[in-house]
Structure to design on (791 residues):
């Protein structure tokens, strides 16, 4: 039990910060908001060369096999500078291919990801954007030894630049045996696949993706037919925890800007940071970022240990949604009018953190999961001890 | 980062739980509720002896003074398991960190082993009628007279004074120095002539709060000092250096199992209660608003736990606190209040029923908690003062 970063973890963080602060300016962030790809390929290649893209992928596929906590530390730093790269969506998909893909899929995809030659994404949300099996309606109908896809996915990250997309499809009605959902690897440029760009608060690349009679071959299946939901849940858990890292990193940096501003901005003849009301706002920001960070890394650490972590992930996201939002909003308040100006950089963080609170599960969604784990399984609960197991 | 306990630590926890199942009898609990000797009667002393034989007292304190020189995490486990049974054994209590840090060899040898054995109990004598949050304004005087000091003044909220063997008190020794530099700390036996203890009854006293209530103590005290003569060797640390000695102890007092459990036991209580009970078929556990709130509170409670773990990790690394102790002392008490108040809205009018009422729930625990939980945000440095410290020490904000 020592929940502070080890020397090695701290070093990794420091090296990542040094690189990112040198390479990612707010000018680049702004430029990429208007860019067709949304990311600079040269920077992506540099990250591959640093070993970040293969960090938590297995060594036999060109990765380093390091714990998710390490990848989380990198993504926290990515969030800090809002580096405009498709790292999160690529990792969400790549880690799932690593855990549940076929050998062929792994060989085709993972080394290319580690090398920076392939961008990936995932598509689970539909019009009912809750990440629950009942909301999965995109139909994959058996056709010979393949399937035909019809339906719509929403809020697909980086779809415009991805070479592969993991798509959650309904292959059967839910039954006692399984949810009837399957996971497929899809080529975003395939016939019958059309994306429509969505304009988001974060000004990143998200798409609505319409599938019309899009045919996929048997090799596209990840896991077993009809039995994809547990794989998708694990994918969402990893992705959610990693998104929390990004939120915490961005909120931390945003709070530091408020701290600096409060030290220097003079009103009524003294720095506003000398007013108790401002000091207490800053103290709360610190509590909130720290809390989110500790919940997030506990969830990642549990995954690394092979322990159940779904409740921990939901705790982290439910907390980060509210508290990171509160942090970036409070920072806006401390900055006053200037924070509302396009030319001032603060909104770059505010808009992203705010958008991220709605991704991968709302506060209500995650609290419903926590409540179910607490209340719907018999047995006494105790903080700091595993909850009673279902079944 | 390591969020888990080692297998040795898990074994330790299980051993303690088994020991407690065997040794914490109803007789002992009744004796402790009795209040005479502060609940520390013959059965309690027998338990302390058994616990000491197991090597579970003062685990993280130095061997030379009766401890085990073990890890702070082990000590945390002992404290948590004991406190969950309502028994305060395991650490060495208030004042010990400061005595270890600032005491003379003679003081350490006299006080620490006695504190570990539970024979020396300190009342805390900091607050005065005119000096609470602004403690440096304290006026209780200690005047040197040859090799002695003579104390005159009054201390407030000296909760343990009616059963303590000693009082750990701050006095003004130089009224002409700047406020923080004219204060000294004394370790004074309670049986010294001139000390009078007068009870102050709390809002938990009528009817008495049930066991396990957050700040359920029915009594505290005010303590008067009239020409109390003590040898100069009773001083802890340097003359006029007491402010800094006292601050050292307080920081450690704000972290650990006690503060953590005060703030989170309600979260467990309410989840476990609604799982097993209902009102004529209506279970709050089926109410979506209640479910959402319980999950929110549970998550906040996890942050309490993690802040405590962070403090333990820091202490174990011999690191210095910058703002982490203050952060814990803001987050945990405020969380305790939020949960307590949320529970009253989950249970409805039942949560107003006191310990002696018909129809009450859990002996009125949830009603009495409402009177006690906010207390945690006031004592040992209010949450407002803790936020000041976070902003100034943690974030470098200028003073107002």
């Amino acid at each position: 039990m020592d929940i502070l970063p080890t020397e090695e973890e701290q070093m990794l963080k420091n090296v990542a910060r040094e690189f990112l602060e040198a390479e990612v300016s707010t000018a680049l962030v702004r430029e990429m908001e208007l860019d067709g790809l949304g990311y600079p390929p040269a920077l992506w290649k540099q990250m591959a060369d640093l070993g970040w893209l293969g960090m938590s992928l297995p060594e036999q596929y060109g990765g380093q096999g390091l714990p998710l906590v390490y990848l989380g530390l990198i993504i926290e730093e990515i969030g800090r500078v809002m580096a405009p790269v498709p790292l999160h969506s690529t990792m969400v998909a790549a880690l799932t291919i690593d855990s549940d893909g076929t050998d062929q899929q792994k060989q085709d995809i993972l080394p290319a990801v580690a090398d920076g030659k392939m961008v990936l994404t995932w598509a689970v949300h539909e019009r009912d954007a809750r990440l629950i099996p009942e909301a999965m309606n995109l139909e994959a109908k058996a056709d010979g030894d393949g399937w035909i896809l019809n339906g719509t996915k929403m809020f697909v990250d980086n779809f415009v630049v991805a070479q592969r997309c993991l798509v959650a499809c309904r292959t059967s009605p839910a039954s006692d045996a399984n949810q009837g959902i399957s996971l497929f690897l899809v080529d975003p440029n395939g016939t019958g696949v059309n994306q429509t760009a969505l304009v988001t608060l974060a000004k990143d690349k998200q798409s609505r993706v319409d599938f019309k009679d899009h045919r996929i071959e048997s090799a596209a299946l990840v896991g077993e037919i009809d039995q994809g939901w547990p794989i998708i849940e694990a994918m969402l858990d990893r992705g959610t925890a990693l998104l929390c890292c990004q939120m915490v990193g961005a909120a931390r940096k945003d709070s530091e800007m408020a701290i600096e501003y409060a030290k220097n901005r003079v009103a009524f003849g003294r720095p506003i940071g000398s007013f108790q009301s401002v000091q207490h706002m800053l103290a709360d920001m610190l509590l909130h970022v720290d809390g989110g960070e500790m919940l997030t890394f506990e969830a990642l650490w549990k995954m690394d240990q092979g322990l159940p972590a779904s409740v921990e992930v939901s705790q982290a996201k439910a907390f980060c949604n509210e508290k990171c939002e509160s942090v970036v909003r409070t920072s806006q308040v401390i900055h006053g009018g200037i924070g509302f100006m396009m030319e001032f950089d603060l909104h770059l963080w505010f808009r992203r953190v705010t958008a991220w609170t709605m991704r991968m599960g709302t506060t209500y969604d995650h609290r419903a999961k926590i409540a179910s784990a607490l209340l719907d399984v018999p047995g006494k609960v105790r903080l700091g001890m595993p909850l009673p197991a279902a079944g | 980062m390591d969020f888990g306990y080692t297998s040795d630590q898990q074994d330790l926890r299980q051993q303690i739980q088994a020991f407690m199942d065997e040794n914490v009898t109803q007789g002992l609990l009744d004796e402790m509720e009795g209040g005479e000797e502060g609940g520390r009667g013959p059965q309690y002393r027998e338990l302390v002896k058994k616990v000491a034989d197991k090597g579970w007292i003062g685990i993280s304190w130095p061997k030379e003074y009766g401890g085990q020189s073990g890890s702070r995490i082990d000590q945390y486990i002992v404290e948590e398991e004991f406190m969950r049974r309502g028994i305060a054994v395991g650490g060495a209590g208030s004042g010990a960190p400061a005595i270890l840090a600032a005491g003379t060899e003679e003081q350490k040898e006299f006080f620490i082993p006695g504190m570990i054995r539970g024979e020396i109990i300190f009342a805390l004598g900091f607050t005065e009628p005119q000096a609470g949050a602004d403690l440096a304004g304290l006026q209780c005087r200690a005047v040197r007279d040859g090799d002695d000091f003579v104390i005159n003044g009054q201390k407030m909220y000296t909760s343990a004074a009616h059963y303590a063997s000693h009082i750990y008190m701050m006095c003004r020794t130089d009224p002409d120095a700047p406020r923080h530099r004219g204060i000294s700390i004394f370790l004074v036996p309670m049986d010294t002539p001139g000390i009078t203890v007068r009870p102050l009854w709390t809002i938990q006293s009528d009817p008495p709060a049930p066991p396990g209530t957050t700040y359920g103590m029915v009594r505290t005290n005010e303590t008067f000092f009239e020409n109390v003569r003590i040898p100069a060797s009773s001083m802890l640390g340097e003359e006029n250096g007491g402010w800094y000695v006292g601050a050292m102890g307080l920081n450690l007092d704000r972290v650990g199992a006690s503060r953590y459990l005060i703030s989170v036991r309600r979260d467990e209580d309410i989840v476990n209660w609604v799982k097993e009970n209902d009102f004529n078929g209506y279970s709050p556990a089926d109410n979506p608003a209640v479910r959402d709130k319980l999950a929110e509170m549970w998550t906040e409670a996890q942050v309490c736990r993690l802040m405590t773990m962070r403090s333990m990790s820091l202490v174990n690394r011999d690191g210095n606190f910058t703002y982490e102790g203050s952060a814990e002392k803001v987050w945990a008490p405020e969380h305790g209040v939020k949960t307590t108040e949320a529970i009253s809205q989950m249970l409805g009018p039942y949560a107003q029923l006191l310990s002696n009422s018909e129809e009450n729930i859990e002996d009125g625990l949830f009603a009495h908690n409402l009177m006690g939980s906010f207390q945690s945000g006031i004592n040992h440095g209010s949450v407002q003062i803790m936020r000041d410290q976070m902003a100034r020490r943690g974030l470098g904000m200028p003073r107002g």
The mean pLDDT of chain B is 91. Chain B touches chain A through 55 residues (CB under 8 Å). The first helix of chain B runs from residue 7 to 23.
